[in-house]
């Protein structure tokens, strides 16, 4: 009797453990998907910031040229 009930308990624990493993796998997949989405947003922001920086630098060069022209240094 003790052996049978112990085996049933072990089987129940193993079944629960299998479900827990599946939950962890699903959670890991969700986290990986979320990380991918976040990385895409971060990379998109970096591209925009780089383009904005280059634009500002280009305008700075143009501003400097205009200032030199106004001051008669060109």
Please describe what this structure looks like.
- The protein is built from one helix and no strands.
- It has 74 residues and is mostly helical.
- The longest helix is centred in the middle third of the chain and has 70 residues, at 2-71.
- The N and C termini lie far apart (103 Å).
- 0% of the residues are buried.
- The mean pLDDT is 90.
- Uncertain spans: none
Reported for the largest beta sheet, the result is: none
Helix amount, in percent?
over 70%
Distance between the termini: 103 Å
Structure characteristics:
single chain; 74 residues; mainly alpha; 1 helix; 0% strand
Offer a quick outline of the entry.
This protein is mostly helical and 74 residues long. It has one helix and no strands.
Topology:
Blueprint (H helix, E strand, L loop, with lengths): L1 H70 L3
